[in-house]
Amino acid sequence: MRKEDCFYLGKIVRKHSFKGEVVAKLDTDEPELYTNLESVFVAFGSQLVPFFIEKSLLQKGNQLRLKIEDVNNEAEADEILGGEIYLPLEFLPKLTGNKFYFHEIINYKMIDENHGDIGVITGINDRTAQPLFEINANGTEVFIPMIDDFIIKVDRDNKTILVKTPEGLIDLYLNP
Q1: Is residue 61 part of a domain?
Q2: Backbone phi, then psi, for 116, in 5-degree steps?
Q3: How far is Cα 3 from Cα 6, in angstroms, rounded to an integer?
Q4: Is residue 26 part of a domain?
Q5: Which end of the chain lies in a sparser environment, N or C, as judged by fewer CB atoms within 10 Å?
Q6: Are residues 59 and 138 in the same domain?
Q7: How far apart are the first and last CA of the chain?
Q8: Is 85 found in the same domain as 42?
Q9: What are phi and psi of 84, to 5 degrees?
């Protein structure tokens, strides 16, 4: 399994018992969706290694206590401690309406209600206080804040996102 075919679910943050149990902090708004997993992939460098789950228990909101097959003591738990957990993309719940996953909208066309066709979404910059759409507008990079009030419609059939940006925002990039 390749990381490109998976999504980041969380990270193994601590050991729970001397019997090899670990606790994973899940990076999701709905941790209850992941309480009955049969297996997960743990990242070791660029490789994803499958681990089978014997039992799991959700605790403290987004922390999932795991008993992983063949991890039976503290030393074995230490080997996976700090490991990032991944699941195949098909495990993601389907979103509807104007909700979307960042990876889902790459290569969608961005259209502004007033400006028209802006370009193609090439990425999402989520390292800023406000995530930004990264758009290639015929070779010019355009950044649009990912604000719910800006997003009018996500059209999955036509792979477009219709936005209404504040006057002058697009011009900052295209008409300097």
Answers
A1: yes
A2: 90, -150
A3: 5
A4: yes
A5: C
A6: no
A7: 45
A8: yes
A9: -80, 140
Those residues with Cβ within 8 angstroms of residue 51's Cβ, 6 or more apart along the chain or in another chain: 39, 40, 41, 42, 68, 69, 70, 71, 80
Verify that 143 and 71 share a domain, yes or no.
Answer: no
**Do 84 and 121 share a domain, yes or no?**
no
What's the CA gap between 56 and 132, in Å, rounded? 35
> What's the pLDDT band for 55 if we cut at 50, 70, 90?
very high
Determine the average pLDDT of the residues in 103-128: 94
Where in the sequence is the domain holding 134, given as residue range(s)? 102-174
Asked whether residue 133 is assigned to any structural domain, the reply reads yes
Q: Which pLDDT score, from 0 to 100, does residue 3 have?
A: 87
Q: Which amino acid is at 169?
A: L
Question: Which of 154, 122, 113 lies closest to 140, judged by CA?
Answer: 122
Domain count, the chain: 2
Beta carbons within 8 Å of 63's beta carbon, 6+ residues apart: 13, 23, 24, 25, 26, 31
- Cα R_g (the chain), whole angstroms: 20
Burial 26-56 (b: 16+ CB within 10 A, else e): bebeebeebeebeebbbbeeeebeebeeeeb
Query: Tokens for 49?
Result: 């290694």
CA distances from 106 to 71, 142, 175 (A): 38, 14, 25
Q: Are residues 82 and 135 in the same domain?
A: no
What does pLDDT average to over the chain?
Answer: 93
